[in-house]
Structure formats: structure tokens, C-alpha cells
Design goal:
alpha/beta, Peroxisomal Thiolase, Chain A, domain 1, 2 domains, five-stranded mixed β-sheet, 13 strands
């Protein structure tokens, strides 16, 4: 059978680093307060010349270099983002052009923080369906553009950045030992829309709007929803938490990450955590964490890796990959 095998990963971050202490003169908060409640110590903030497209392009080039491939080798680009450069066309098409790629096709996918997990699953279906041999999957965000910098409950949580992965069609036997995407579970529930959303849009206010969040409500639902899709993915693959080599969760809040891992029985040493370095970068969160763990040698060929995310909507999902 056809499997979607990871060929390479890459990342890109804005030049500017904003530390927790930098907020102390802007809103009523402190380094200790932010770090204690979220695990975040710094985040990257995009300058005027750094956009979702430019960061996505840089991450894409890094992933292609890591894979030993060029844009000519790619058939499809799937970009997960909630902060596109334009309402239309898709920012994926912009990145396609920046890469000098004039063949194949490209589109954006919007599932907020779950976007990269949704995009990997989507790319896997295109590969297994025979419509693409190699897919560039990107998560790129500039959430700093939609933050209300006077709202201390949200402005300290988010950062900007991009991560990318190259998936390639490979042959598998249909067993858990195969390399590539092995199983996935995706969910959404629009009844929770008002708990995490942006209060603007072309069809409603005609403005971009700002991010709004009921933090306690999101936290209350997060662990249960995350556990739900992970257990469904384990069941589909016929594995348990003990079989995992690495757990790469969405980097939103250290407390949520710790509680989810504990509830699932995933050992602390198997959890990749970068929330302290990047903050919550929405759809870029998982691929940024992945790129760090691949670059430092933790994630190696043959490892069983679980990706997980939850975002506004609510959307949530998990995907299991043999590296």
C-alpha cells in the first residue's frame, strides 16, 4: 500500500524575540505570572517585512533542503494558516510563486491551531489517492497581527513563525512497522465557536478583527478533547501510549500539555515542549516543535511520533507517523 513518508522538515522564525518582561510596561502582568500559568518565556514577533507568506517560504525552503529536494519535485502545497497575507488568493499560491514553482497546485486550509494536523491528514489522502507524489505541508502564522495588545489574557500567549514538512509517496506493507502516516483522528464542534474566535471578518464586519478567548473554558475542554482523538488514533493503529517514542503536542500551554500526557500515560521524557521558546504559534506550533526535535537529534528514522492539536471552532485532531 501507499504510505506518506516524511522526507524533510524545516522552520522559520521572525528576527525579533519578545520576552515576558517586555509586557510589563504594556499591560498589568509579569514574567513570573506568565511563565507560571503558561510555561511561556518568550515568543517571536514579525516585523513589517515578515509575513505569513515570507515565513512560510523560508520554512518551505528549509524543509526542501533537509529533504534534498527542490520546488520542481513538489506536486502540491497545503498551507495551514488563520492569518493569510490576503483574503484571497490563498497564501499557498503566493508561496508557490515565491518558490518559483509554476506547476502543480496549492491551497490554504483553515482549522486554526489544529491546522497542521488537518493539513498532514489532507496531504496523506492526496498522496494515497494518487493525485500527488510529493506534498509540501506548511503551518505559518503571524498572530501578532490579530492580537489586542491591551488584553493581557491573550496578548502574552501568542507568537509568530512557520514550520514545514515534505511528505512523499512510499511503499508500505500495511503494518504498524511501515514508515509514514499510519493513523489519524479529526474532530470539530461549532457549538464552542464563541470560546475562541476573531471578532471580525470580510462577511461580517468588513475588518480583520481581534482574537478573543475564554481561557478557562478552553482549558476546561482541552484535555478531554485531546485525549479523545489520541485514544481513537491509538485504537486505529492498534498501539498504546507505551509504544510511542515521541509525543509532539500543540504548544499552547504547558499545563495542558502536562495534564494531557499524564492522563494518557505518556512518559514526560517522551514529550516535546517548545512553548517556552515560541509561545502559541497556532498552525505553526506543531511543525516548529517537530523541527526542533528533529534538528537536535531526538526524533530519528523509525521513531513512532504522535502529533496533536486543538484550536478555535473547536477543532482538534491527532496523527500518528512512523518517522
Amino acid at each position: 500500500m501507499i504510505r506518506s513518508v516524511v522526507r524533510g522538515t524545516g522552520a522559520a522564525l521572525p528576527r525579533r524575540i519578545m520576552k515576558n518582561a517586555d509586557f510589563e510596561g504594556m499591560v498589568e502582568t509579569s514574567d513570573e505570572w506568565i511563565a507560571q500559568r503558561t510555561g511561556i518565556r518568550q515568543r517571536h514577533i514579525a516585523a513589517d517585512d515578515e509575513t505569513t507568506a515570507s515565513l512560510g517560504e523560508a520554512a518551505a525552503r528549509a524543509a526542501l533542503d533537509n529533504a534534498g529536494l527542490t520546488p520542481d519535485d513538489i506536486d502540491l502545497i497545503v498551507l495551514a494558516t488563520s492569518t493569510p497575507n490576503n483574503t484571497f488568493p490563498a497564501t499557498a499560491v503566493d508561496i508557490q510563486n515565491r518558490l518559483g514553482m509554476h506547476h502543480g497546485f496549492a491551497f490554504d486550509l483553515q482549522a486554526v491551531c489544529s491546522g497542521f494536523v488537518y493539513a498532514v491528514t489532507t496531504a496523506d489522502l492526496y498522496i494515497r489517492g494518487g493525485l500527488a507524489k510529493r506534498v509540501l505541508v506548511i503551518g505559518s502564522e503571524t498572530f501578532s497581527r490579530i492580537l489586542d495588545w491591551s488584553d493581557r489574557s491573550t496578548c502574552v500567549l501568542f507568537g509568530d513563525g512557520a514550520g514545514a514538512m515534505v511528505l512523499e509517496a512510499g511503499e508500505g506493507t500495511g503494518s504498524i512497522a511501515d514508515r509514514g502516516v499510519l493513523a489519524a483522528s479529526l474532530r470539530s464542534d461549532g457549538t464552542h465557536k464563541d470560546k475562541l474566535f476573531v471578532d471580525g471578518g470580510p462577511s461580517t464586519t468588513g475588518t480583520v478583527g481581534y482574537l478573543r478567548m475564554e481561557g478557562r473554558e478552553v482549558f476546561k475542554h482541552a484535555v478531554g478533547m485531546i485525549t479523545d482523538v489520541i485514544e481513537a488514533t491509538f485504537s486505529a493503529a492498534g498501539i498504546t501510549a507505551e509504544d510511542l517514542d515521541w509525543f509532539v503536542p500543540h504548544q499552547a500551554n504547558k499545563r495542558i500539555i502536562d495534564a494531557s500526557a499524564k492522563k494518557l500515560g505518556i512518559a514526560e521524557q517522551k514529550v516535546v515542549v517548545t512553548v517556552d521558546l515560541h509561545g502559541n504559534t497556532s498552525a505553526a506550533s506543531v511543525p516548529l516543535a517537530l523541527s526542533v526535535a528533529v534538528a537536535d537529534g531526538r526524533i530519528k528514522k523509525g521513531d513512532l511520533v504522535l502529533l496533536e492539536a486543538m484550536g478555535g471552532g473547536f477543532t482538534w485532531g491527532a496523527v500518528l507517523v512512523r518517522w
